[in-house]
Structure formats: C-alpha cells, structure tokens
Amino acid sequence: MKRFTFLFLVALLTIGLVACNKEEASGSNGKGSKDQLVFGYTSMTQNNPFFQVLEEAIREKVEANGDKLITMNPAMDVELQINQIEDLISQGIDAIFLNPVDWEGIRPALVMLEEAGIPIINYDTEVKDFDYVTAYVGSDNKNAGRVVGQDLVERFPDGGKIVILDSPTMNSVNDRIDGFLEAIEGKNFEIVAQQDAKGDLEIALGLTEDILQAHSDFIAIMGGNDPTGLGALAALKAANRDDIVVYGVDGSPDAKAAIAEGGPFVGSGAQSPISIGQQSVDVAYKILNKEEFEKRIPVETFIINEDNVEEYGVDGWQ
C-alpha cells in the first residue's frame, strides 16, 4: 500500500511539472514554444524624426520583453518597401508594424503578408485595402488638420488667400487636409496654389520659392506635416516674407522651436509618435496572445501654438 501511494504521488508530481513547463513555454507574450518573437518594422521613411522616435518607442517595449525588432527603411520608395517586406517574411517575422509609402501601392505586400499568416499592425497612415489590416493605431489626423484650420480662422477672421502643400500618396496627410478644409469652409479663404510636397522639407522649400514668384499676396501656408511647414518657413525667411504664417502637423521639436521663436511658423497639429509606438506594441502582443483587441485605436491630436508651446517644451516629442 505504501509503495502504491508513493508511485501515485510521483505520478501527480510529474503531471504537475509537465503542466508548469507547458505554461512557462506558452509565456505571457504570445511566444508559444519560441524563445523569442521577431517583429518587422517599416515606415514610409526613417529619415523623418517622427518615425525615428516612433521606432524607438516600439523597439524599447519589444526588447524589454526579450523579443527582436527588425527595422527597414524604404526611404519613400514603395517598390523598395514591398521588396523589404518580402525579405522580412523570409526572415520568419511573427508580426509587422507597417506604415505605407503609398497607401494604395502597398497592396502587393499586404497580400503576401496575409498569405504568410502574419498579423499587420498598420500605424499612423491607413492603407487603402484596410481589410488586410489586423489592427490600426494612429493619430486622429482629420482633427489634426481641423485644429490648424480653426487656428487660422481665429487669426484671420476676414479670410484671405492661402497655399496648401499636401502629399496625395500619404493618406494621413489627405485626412489632415480634409480636416483643415472643413474648418475653413465658408470663412472666405481662397486657395491660390496646392502642390505635392511629398512630405519633404527640401521639396517644400523649392515649391514655396516657386509659389512666391507666382503669387505675392497670400497670407498663410498649410503644410501636411512639419517637415513641409519647415521647408516653407526656410523659403519665406530667405525671401524676407515674415508676413505669411505657416502651419505644420506633427508637433515635432523643430516645429515647436520655430513656434517659440515667434516667427512665421505659428502652429502645428500635434500628435505623439511615442504613444503611437507604445500602443502599437500593446495591440501586437494582444493579437499574438489571442486576446481581445480594438481594430482601430485612435491617438489624441491637438494644436500647439504660441499660447501653449512652453507647456510641451522644444527639446523632445510629447
């Protein structure tokens, strides 16, 4: 009888150890039997400080969990981005953080990711073929443009001629411009030029120089992001046109510094790349753990101007 009891207790202990080992193997971060999860990361360009900060926020949380992040930089080349995503798939990534160079042109990569069974955490800029997306994390871009438009209306209640520097392949910028136009509708503003700056400082600088040659009497420039607004600012400074106000969207340290100087750059529809990155990682782990998650996760946007820029500081992102 004692021998039977001893064997029975040994059997129970063995079963318990197996169960514990299985629980440890499954982990709390969706690893299953893997020691390390591997995430892919791609943005439209890592040459933009916004995406540099966002990637750092993602990397910090991923590596804190003992996992790995592989970062790619297509530098505004959609074909390169598709090829890089194919490479990430071949490296066996478990999920991808994806911001498209071209919201429509990225479709072949979305198809490949779906066929490979890889969850897509689309961030900051929505892809057009949204059905492929597992979850989306991004700023309320329409509101970011809207608060800029509202600020413009307050400064110029009688309206006036304005310039818009947009970027049609970036859906985040499209949403910002839509919100901006809604805010100024019926307020006696006239758009004298609308050009594609591709979200790039140097391109925006050149376009603004050309626009100044063609139109001399406009009162404001709306940039689809802060690099665009800062490019326009450089052109205005070179032309000694501090009578024209400039807006951007992002709330970047450079934009906030320009606002604090009290010059022509008067406002930015601010967002937080840190929050976008952190919330993207949170939802990625929920997906891999098969936990409940929201498909759309909005991140707050708001105006930063001379009235509140000191609250947010000029040395880093909010």
Notable features of this structure?
alpha/beta, Rossmann fold, 2 domains, 6-stranded parallel β-sheet, 6-stranded mixed β-sheet, 19% strand, elongated
Share of β-strand residues: 15-25%
The proportion of residues forming helix, as a percent range, comes to: 40-55%
CATH fold-level name of the largest domain: Rossmann fold
Q: Termini distance?
A: 70 Å
Q: Any idea what the radius of gyration is? A: 24 Å
Shape category: elongated
Element order: H for helix, E for strand: HEHEHEHEEHEHEHEHEHEHEEH
At the fourth level of CATH, the homologous superfamily of the largest domain is Response regulator
Overall structural class, as computed from helix and strand content, comes to alpha/beta
CATH hierarchy: architecture of the largest domain? 3-Layer(aba) Sandwich
Low-confidence stretches: 1-28
Largest sheet data: 6 strands, parallel
Mean pLDDT: 91
| SS summary, helix count | 11
Class of the largest domain in CATH?
A: Alpha Beta
Question: How are the strands ordered across the major sheet?
Answer: 2-1-3-4-5-11
As for the number of domains, it is: 2
Count every beta strand, where a strand is a DSSP E run of 2 or more residues.
12
Overview of this protein structure:
The protein is an alpha/beta fold and 318 residues long. It folds into 2 domains: 38-138 and 273-299, Rossmann fold (3-Layer(aba) Sandwich); 141-272 and 304-312, Response regulator (Rossmann fold, 3-Layer(aba) Sandwich). The chain has 11 helices and 12 strands. The strands form 2 sheets. Strands 2-1-3-4-5-11 form a 6-stranded parallel beta sheet, sandwiched between helices. The chain has a 6-stranded mixed beta sheet with strand order 7-6-8-9-10-12, sandwiched between helices. Strand 8, helix 8 and strand 9 (245-250) form a beta-alpha-beta unit. Helix 2 runs parallel beside helix 10 (273-288), helix 3 packs parallel to helix 4 and helix 7 (201-214) packs across helix 8 (226-238).
